C-alpha cells in the first residue's frame, strides 16, 4: 500500500514535465521502531516556463496538504490490516531549483516521521511488513535503508546491492515482493568476538544469496526460452505471464535481458508484444 502511495506522489509531481531523471527513497530506522521516510526526485526543466512554474510550486501550500491527506488514508489502511497503531508527524513537502552546468533541475522532496513503522520485541527489530503487496523501482530509482545506531544486521531479504556505512542500498530495476525489503536487526552487545562472527556470517550469507539470485535469474530466463521453443518460437508476452506465474514487471525485466543478449525480438501485434526467438 505504501509503495503505491510513493509511486503516486512521484508521478503527480512530474506530470507536466519530461520525466523524472533520478528518484530516491530513503528510510532511516529509529531504535524505538519509528522511521524517518524521505522521498526525493530530480526533474530536468527544459524551458523558462517550466522553471517559472516550478517557482510557483514552492509557494503552493495546498500541495503539501493533498499529499499528507493521501498519506494518512494509506497509513490508516496499513495500520488496520497489520493491527498495529500508526501515525505520522513532521510532514513536509518542498520544491526547489538546483542549477547545474547547462541545465536547471527541479527538485521535489517530502519527508515525515512514521510512528511504529517496525516491530520491536525485546532486543530485536523487524521491519518490512508495511510493504503490503510489494513494489517496483525502475532503472533510475534507488531505495536506501539506514540501520539505527546500536543495532546489527541479522537478516535481510532480498540481499542489497550495496552495504555502505550502515546503509542498505538497492538499485533499480528491482521487483520487491510483498513484505520486502525485510530486515531483522538485533541490539549490539559488548562481546566483540560474537560481533565479528556475526559480521562474517552475514558476509558469507550475502555472497550465497547473491549466487542463488544469479542462478534463479538464469533459470527464469531458461524457463522463458523453453516456453518459446514449445510454442514454435513465438508467444505473446501476456501468455508468458500467465504460464510462468511471474509478475508483469518481472517478465518484462527477463525479456529485456534476453533481447539485450540477442536471443529474442519483440514485435507489436495490436496492443500486445509478440515475443519471437531470434534465428541465429
List keywords for this structure.
about 280 residues; alpha+beta; Arc Repressor Mutant, subunit A; seven-stranded mixed β-sheet; four-stranded antiparallel β-sheet; 6 helices; 16 strands; about 35% strand; globular; disordered N terminus
Describe the structure.
The protein has 2 domains: 2-188, no CATH class; 217-277, Orthogonal Bundle (Arc Repressor Mutant, subunit A). It is built from 6 helices and 16 strands. The protein has helices at 2-13, 48-57, 61-82, 192-230, 237-244, 248-260; strands at residues 22-29, 35-45, 87-100, 103-115, 119-121, 124-127, 135-137, 141-146, 151-157, 162-164, 167-171, 174-176, 182-187, 234-236, 264-269, 272-277. Strand 3 and strand 4 (103-115) form a beta hairpin. Helix 4 (192-230) packs across helix 6. The relative contact order is 0.11.
What is the helical fraction, as a range of percent? Answer: 25-40%
Q: How many domains make up the 3D coordinates? A: 2
Main-sheet strand order equals: 3-4-2-1-8-11-10
End-to-end Cα distance = 45 Å
Give the topology, please:
Elements: H1 2-13, E1 22-29, E2 35-45, H2 48-57, H3 61-82, E3 87-100, E4 103-115, E5 119-121, E6 124-127, E7 135-137, E8 141-146, E9 151-157, E10 162-164, E11 167-171, E12 174-176, E13 182-187, H4 192-230, E14 234-236, H5 237-244, H6 248-260, E15 264-269, E16 272-277
Parallel strand pairs: 1-8
Antiparallel strand pairs: 1-2, 2-4, 3-4, 5-6, 6-13, 7-12, 8-11, 9-13, 10-11, 14-16, 15-16
Amino acid at each position: 500500500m505504501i509503495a503505491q502511495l510513493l509511486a503516486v506522489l512521484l508521478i503527480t509531481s512530474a506530470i507536466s514535465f519530461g520525466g523524472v531523471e533520478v528518484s530516491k527513497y530513503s528510510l532511516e530506522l529509529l531504535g524505538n521502531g519509528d522511521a524517518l521516510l524521505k522521498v526525493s526526485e530530480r526533474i530536468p526543466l527544459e524551458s523558462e516556463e517550466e522553471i517559472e512554474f516550478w517557482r510557483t510550486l514552492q509557494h503552493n501550500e495546498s500541495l503539501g496538504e493533498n499529499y499528507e491527506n493521501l498519506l494518512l488514508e494509506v497509513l490508516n489502511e496499513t495500520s488496520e490490516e497489520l493491527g498495529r497503531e500508526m501515525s505520522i508527524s513532521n510532514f513536509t513537502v518542498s520544491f526547489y531549483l538546483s542549477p547545474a552546468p547547462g541545465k536547471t533541475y527541479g527538485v521535489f522532496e517530502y519527508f515525515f516521521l512514521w510512528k511504529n513503522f517496525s516491530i520491536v520485541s525485546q532486543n530485536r527489530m523487524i521491519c518490512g511488513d508495511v510493504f503490503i503487496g510489494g513494489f517496483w523501482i525502475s532503472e533510475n530509482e534507488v531505495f536506501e535503508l539506514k540501520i539505527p545506531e546500536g543495532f546489527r544486521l541479522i537478516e535481510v531479504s532480498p540481499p542489497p546491492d550495496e552495504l555502505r556505512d550502515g546503509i542498505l542500498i538497492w538499485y533499480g530495476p528491482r521487483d520487491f515482493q510483498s513484505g520486502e525489503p525485510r530486515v531483522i536487526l538485533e541490539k549490539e552487545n559488548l562481546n566483540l568476538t560474537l560481533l565479528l562472527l556475526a559480521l562474517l556470517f552475514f558476509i558469507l550469507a550475502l555472497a550465497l544469496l547473491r549466487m542463488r539470485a544469479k542462478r534463479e535469474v538464469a533459470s527464469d530466463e531458461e524457463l522463458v526460452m523453453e516456453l518459446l521453443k514449445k510454442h514454435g518460437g513465438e508467444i505473446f508476452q501476456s501468455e508468458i505471464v500467465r504460464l510462468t506465474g511471474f509478475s508483469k514487471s518481472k517478465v518484462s525485466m527477463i525479456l529485456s535481458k534476453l533481447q539485450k543478449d540477442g536471443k529474442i525480438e519483440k514485435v507489436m501485434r495490436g496492443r500486445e508484444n509478440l515475443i519471437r526467438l531470434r534465428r541465429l
